[in-house]
Amino acid sequence: MQKTPMTAAGLQRLEEELRRLKSDERPAVIRAIAEAREHGDLSENAEYHAARERQSFIEGRLQELEEIISTAEVIDPSTLSGDQVKFGARVKLIDEETEKESSYQIVGMHEADIKQGLLSISSPLAKALIGKSLGDSVSVPAPGGDRTYEIVSVIYS
């Protein structure tokens, strides 16, 4: 079984979601199905069908989370160092065309959230950054044409 790299914080978020689904969401949807059954004819009962659809989603997500968690390999970025970009690095970049600065942490694909600056290791930008060092320029294919970034900071924390 192939291991999936992940930070401890990312694993904790997934475990919390799993716990919430098992202890809160699953029992609530079971109650909703029971209530909807009491209303009679199930063939025309929209509440029943909505609750069953929600139950199906929850069960699918539970299976997905259990699989992700079972294959997770936690990597602690604070044990890494250097100026070369690796998994877990917080990287500050400057767009060489617009001079706009951006900052990302390279994380596992199941914990990525670009709005929070968490960049999936499987993204084109992360793939271009891995193995590069402080001061290097990287070119990344983008819909509007290739973008070039300079690495101005690499931090492991």
TrEMBL record:
Pfam families documented for this protein: GreA_GreB (PF01272), GreA_GreB_N (PF03449)
Organism domain of life: Bacteria
Gene Ontology molecular function: DNA binding; RNA polymerase binding; translation elongation factor activity
Native species: Acetobacter estunensis
SUPFAM superfamilies: FKBP-like, GreA transcript cleavage protein, N-terminal domain
Family membership noted in the UniProt record: Belongs to the GreA/GreB family.
Domain Transcription elongation factor GreA/GreB C-terminal: from-to ranges: 82-156
Gene3D superfamilies: Transcription elongation factor, GreA/GreB, C-terminal domain, Transcription elongation factor, GreA/GreB, N-terminal domain
Keywords per UniProt: DNA-binding, Elongation factor, Protein biosynthesis, Transcription, Transcription regulation
Function text: Necessary for efficient RNA polymerase transcription elongation past template-encoded arresting sites. The arresting sites in DNA have the property of trapping a certain fraction of elongating RNA polymerases that pass through, resulting in locked ternary complexes. Cleavage of the nascent transcript by cleavage factors such as GreA or GreB allows the resumption of elongation from the new 3'terminus. GreA releases sequences of 2 to 3 nucleotides.
GO biological process: DNA-templated transcription elongation; regulation of DNA-templated transcription elongation
Lineage: Bacteria, Pseudomonadati, Pseudomonadota, Alphaproteobacteria, Acetobacterales
UniProt name for this protein: Transcription elongation factor GreA
Location of the Transcription elongation factor GreA/GreB N-terminal domain: 5-74
